[in-house]
Every structure is written in structure tokens, then in C-alpha cells.
Prior knowledge:
The chain is built from six helices and twelve strands. The chain is an alpha/beta fold. The chain has two domains: 31-99, membrane protein fhac (Ubiquitin-like (UB roll), Roll); 102-220, Rossmann fold (3-Layer(aba) Sandwich), CATH 3.40.50.10960. It has a nine-stranded mixed β-sheet with strand order 6-5-4-7-8-9-10-11-12, covered by helices on one side. A three-stranded mixed β-sheet has the order 1-3-2. A hairpin with a 5-residue loop joins β5 (111-115) and β6 (121-124). The radius of gyration is 28 Å and the shape is elongated. The N and C termini lie far apart (106 Å).
Amino acid sequence: MARLQRRILIGAVVAAILIAIAAVVLPRTQVFAVEEIAVEGAVQLSPEEVEAATGIVNGTPIGAVNTHDAAVGVAGLPWVKSATVTRSWPSTIKIELVEHTAVAFVAEPDGSHLINAQGEVFAVDDPPAGAVEITGAAARDGAALSGAMGVVSSISGPSREAVASIEARSPNTFVLKLKDGRTVVWGASENNANKALALESVLQREGREFNISNPQQVTVR
């Protein structure tokens, strides 16, 4: 009886060792090879661009994939704000990313410098729909750019669609150029919430030039 119990114990130990070895070895063999790279969250980027940035090749043993390095590669793409790479057994690599949102841009000789809501230039690329151009003599001034972003961020979506550009005449003077040719003098980047409400109002009014630098006393010409 003791001998039988010993054999059973030895068999169990051997089985456990074999299972442990299989758990380590099999994922790094072609038995569990990458067959699909699934990308979620890509809007401006194509899935192919994201896949290429991972450096992962289909057919690679899924257990051998370095998910950290793959995520770093994806995060290196200009449009990517954050990226996560995980394994989905038995054969899929899952990539979840969050892209920057371009709310404004400055046209430079090398292309359009896209700016997110935090005022960071994150890419040189074609501006997407909804991004407002920042123009004017002070457009490249850090303080003016920060002020312009305060203006852009305060304008609601429907109103923003009517704005073609924001001219930074100085760090404290901004003028909105509307797509229909009208202009709106915003003034300094302050009291922006009330000015944004005033903008919504003047967009419905007749006139060629509006001054909402004092949103309590809007003037029209």
C-alpha cells in the first residue's frame, strides 16, 4: 500500500512538472502563434500603421511577444496619447490606444503643427475637420498660443464649426475669422466662458464685425 501511494505521489509530481514545463514552453512555440493583431481606438491612424509600430510579425509565438516593447513602439507614433498591448490567448494580440484630439493648428513651412487641448504640439500632419487654425503675428509666441488655446477650448462644438481661424494679433488680442467672412473681436483670453456665450448669440445676428471683448456690451458694425 505504501509503495502504491509512493507511485501515485511520484506520478503526480511528474505530471505537475510536465504541466509546468508545457505552460512555459508551449506558449513560445508555433502551437500558440500570433494569427491576428486587433487594433481598437485608431481614428486618424490606420490599423496597418499601428501594427507596424508594434514590431510584431504574424507567426511569432505569442508567449515570446514583448508586450511592453510593442506598447512603447505604438506610443511613439505622433498621434498616440497612450497605448496598451495585451495577449488574448491563444493567438491574438490586442492593442488599445487613445489618440490625441487636434483642436487647433499652426501652419508652418514644414506642414501644419497640430495642437491638442492641453496646448501641446503633438504632430505635423493634415489638420482634421474641426481643428481651428491659429494665425497672426503672435501665433508662435508661447503666451499667445496658450491664450489662443483658452479661446478655442471655451467655444462650443457648433460655434467652433463656424470659425475658420483665430488671429493672434498680440498675446492679449485675438480676433476670430468666421467661415462666412465675418469677424469677431474676442480681445484678451479671459472671461472666455461668457465670451463663448456671446459668440453663440452674435452668430445668429446680422453684421460684418462684432466685438465681444466685453461680453456684456457687444458691439456690431
